[in-house]
């Protein structure tokens, strides 16, 4: 498996610990979205890795969306994941107006700014859902997620994400870990948990994520490993309602000039072309 999540229990089964290898996913979303700038790639990679870790908290047909809002008007980072391990992430178009030097080298805290907001949306299926939103006092996404869980879900959680970029700015390695106290767990365990998450071997790109559970105390139990994958889920059929909603005049013009219409998926960059013959069937009779 190129990308995967490892689920485990540790500290006398009082803590849920999740480990994720997401290098392939981070590369894919940065390439598909044509993300310019090393700093923006790192921010997007961090967000999709956090979403990949949270996949381990989902079941059945549940879905989860992360929305990172920044102090810059309209500049947002999105990541989505479902219980089957399908992950996608993208940036809002407004990031294209950010100066190239900032997109390339600004610290994450500066990209987020002092008015960042983090929103978590859980789709629980059967028309049930939950949405929570908090401020981002840390401006680094991972500690802000821990802040969100403490404020909105009253759950003590810790995250760590390591993103390494190659000389050209492409994602060379991306992985992370999440630890969450289970109900009834002693908060005194936090010191031991943070010691594990701060182990320098986790930051070493040469140390595989499959070796990370060995950093846990001897009573830890690995519950299983499941694949993660970059998957947008878009299709030609998704865009049909949008095209059919074009005005009759626009459709007639495209048909009369024998012009195909192309739609580009905002999330993954896939292109879908619709021929004049297809559009002719959508033109209402006069």
UniProtKB/TrEMBL annotation:
Protein name per the record: Uncharacterized protein
Organism: Symbiobacterium thermophilum
SUPFAM superfamilies: Hsp33 domain, HSP33 redox switch-like
Keywords: Chaperone, Cytoplasm, Disulfide bond, Redox-active center, Zinc
GO CC annotation: cytoplasm
One Pfam family here: HSP33
Alphabetized GO MF terms: protein folding chaperone; unfolded protein binding
Superkingdom field: Bacteria
GO biological process annotation, one example: protein refolding
